[in-house]
């Protein structure tokens, strides 16, 4: 699409100082619609980046509707600098927050996939605590909040525990890449500091969760557990009976874009005078 070209070149934002400094790649689509329509913010999953199918389709929706769209690669991912093995939830959260503050939209809708769902929920907490753009909605795709403590640690094999203790990490075969997934001791320990499923999560906005029932990575019971921790919010949970973890098929993408449009409509309705 020709209208996507001017925004296709990444910018780089340095986050952190000294040895912790890393250059974070961002692609920002400027709003065309005028007014105060919210910006869409894409948050990728573990080892995913902003050039994936869902991210590109979300940007295409923004182009179609004249909305701003912000995408980033976490450090150690995609076009960004930094080492993947240094990555933790706190580090990637810091980067996402820095990017949002740098672009400084007035209102945002967070769209998070897998680990990006966890980052989105933590962003909601940090924006509420620190101030910043108003969060008007969230769309979470196969969200994996607390996956280190909820999904990885309980299933560690003896050899993986030994590798963590002796080498500081363990490897696991990936069905999405020839390179194995690497889980570090730092990632797992930091995960405890970022837990969200240990009390009520108050996002203050509507939340739409899309979850495949044939997801081999994040069981659909995990999405139901998340809903239990969102009692104060307007939550819609959509199960895709034959959906896998990626939810990148045309029908899955249609559901994602429809969910985003639904959040956009509800945010517009809430701004209308009574």
TrEMBL record:
InterPro entries: AB_hydrolase_1, AB_hydrolase_fold, ABHD10_acyl-thioesterase. Its EC number is 3.1.1.93, 3.1.2.22. Gene3D superfamilies: alpha/beta hydrolase. One of its GO terms (molecular function) is palmitoyl-(protein) hydrolase activity. It catalyses: mycophenolic acid O-acyl-beta-D-glucuronide + H2O = mycophenolate + D-glucuronate + H(+); S-hexadecanoyl-L-cysteinyl-[protein] + H2O = L-cysteinyl-[protein] + hexadecanoate + H(+). It comes from the Bacteria. Coiled coil: none annotated. It is an enzyme of class 3 (hydrolase). Keywords: Hydrolase, Transit peptide. Residues 55-250 form the AB hydrolase-1 domain. Pfam families: Abhydrolase_6. Acts as an acyl-protein thioesterase that hydrolyzes fatty acids from acylated residues in proteins. Regulates the mitochondrial S-depalmitoylation of the nucleophilic active site residue of peroxiredoxin-5/PRDX5, a key antioxidant protein, therefore modulating mitochondrial antioxidant ability. Also catalyzes the deglucuronidation of mycophenolic acid acyl-glucuronide, an active metabolite of the immunosuppressant drug mycophenolate. This is Palmitoyl-protein thioesterase ABHD10, mitochondrial.
């Amino acid at each position: 699409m020709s209208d996507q070209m001017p925004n296709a070149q990444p910018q780089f934002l340095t986050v952190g100082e000294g040895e912790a400094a890393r250059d974070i790649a961002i692609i920002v689509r400027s709003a065309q619609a005028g007014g105060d329509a919210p910006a869409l913010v894409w948050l990728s999953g573990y080892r995913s980046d902003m050039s994936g199918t869902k991210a590109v389709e979300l940007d295409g929706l923004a182009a179609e509707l004249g909305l701003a769209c912000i995408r980033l690669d976490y450090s150690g991912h995609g076009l960004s600098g930094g080492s993947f093995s240094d990555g933790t939830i706190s580090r990637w959260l810091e980067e996402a927050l820095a990017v949002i503050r740098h672009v400084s939209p007035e209102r945002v809708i967070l769209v998070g996939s897998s680990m990006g769902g966890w980052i989105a929920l933590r962003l909601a907490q940090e924006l509420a605590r620190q101030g910043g753009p108003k969060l008007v909605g969230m769309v979470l795709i196969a969200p994996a909040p607390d996956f280190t403590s909820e999904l990885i640690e309980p299933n560690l094999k003896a050899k993986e525990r030994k590798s963590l203790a002796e080498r500081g990490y363990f490897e696991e075969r990936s069905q999405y890449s020839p390179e194995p997934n690497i889980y570090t001791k730092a990632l797992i320990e930091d995960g405890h500091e970022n837990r969200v499923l240990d009390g009520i999560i108050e996002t203050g906005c509507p939340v739409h969760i899309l979850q495949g029932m044939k997801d081999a990575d994040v069981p659909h019971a995990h999405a139901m557990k998340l809903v239990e921790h969102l009692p104060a919010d307007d939550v819609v949970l959509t199960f895709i009976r034959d959906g896998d973890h990626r939810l990148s098929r045309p029908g899955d993408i249609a559901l994602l874009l429809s969910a985003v449009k639904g959040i956009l409509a509800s945010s517009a309705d809430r701004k209308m005078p009574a």
